[in-house]
Design goal:
Strand content: under 5%
Low-confidence stretches: none
Helix content: over 70%
Distance between the termini: 61 Å
Number of strands: 0
CATH architecture of the largest domain: Orthogonal Bundle
Order of helices and strands: HHHHHHHHHH
Number of helices: 10
CATH topology of the largest domain: Tetracycline Repressor, domain 2
Structural class: mainly alpha
Radius of gyration: 20 Å
Number of domains: 2
Shape: elongated
């Protein structure tokens, strides 16, 4: 239920969201109870239920806010860049940097992907991410900077590579975001062939 909140109420709501997100990421969504959250913050359950109808609603809001903030970060990173390929690169790097800076939210996004009740929300966010990337891919194709292929497939590939490398390198292995960003950019823009092999393959066509 939407409520008109004072500035103090907005701060309290954000405190609940941030504290719960970190508890869910550290201890797990299912083991963490509403009591754990309110006790950790030193407030009563009435405060929690003033802002959220349930623990599930709370996590849904955390996931929605996280996806929205990631998109905002991506848009800011590419806002002043006229080159579509550089926009794609900047978007990849911004995504990996955000996931690195918000690892607790990254953990929750990955968890939600595996839960039937939350998975549709993650899929919706992924579909929006593809829709966001598509115009830049199409612009790159139109400028002959990206190979002429199905732009939807290319957009999915870019996002899939970025997400996978961020998950493995940043979240699982704890490697620097710059390293994961470099790897994602290199693969998405250059592929797996060496320049010599790429030229040889082109010559064989």
């Amino acid at each position: 239920m939407a409520r008109r909140l004072t500035a103090r109420g907005q701060r309290r709501r954000l405190e609940l969201l941030d504290y719960a997100a970190r508890q869910f990421a550290t201890n797990g969504y299912h083991p963490t109870s509403v009591t754990d959250i309110v006790d950790g913050l030193g407030v009563g359950k009435g405060v929690f239920y003033w802002y959220f109808a349930s623990k599930e609603e709370l996590l849904r809001q955390i996931l929605t806010d996280a996806q929205r903030d990631l998109r905002r970060t991506q848009r800011q990173a590419i806002a002043d860049e006229p080159d579509p390929v550089r926009r794609i690169e900047a978007g990849i790097r911004a995504s990996v940097a955000w996931l690195d800076a918000n690892r607790h939210l990254f953990v929750l996004l990955e968890f939600a992907r595996t839960e039937e009740r939350f998975a549709p929300l993650i899929r919706q966010g992924e579909e929006q991410a593809v829709a966001d990337a598509l115009p830049h891919v199409k612009a790159g194709i139109a400028a002959s900077m990206i190979r002429r292929d199905d732009p939807l497939v290319l957009a999915h590939a870019i996002l899939g590579v970025t997400d996978r490398l961020a998950r493995v390198l940043v979240l699982e292995q704890g490697r620097p975001a710059d390293e994961a960003g470099d790897a994602a950019v290199a693969f998405c823009l250059e592929g797996i062939l060496s320049p010599t092999a790429a030229q040889r393959r082109l010559g064989q066509r």
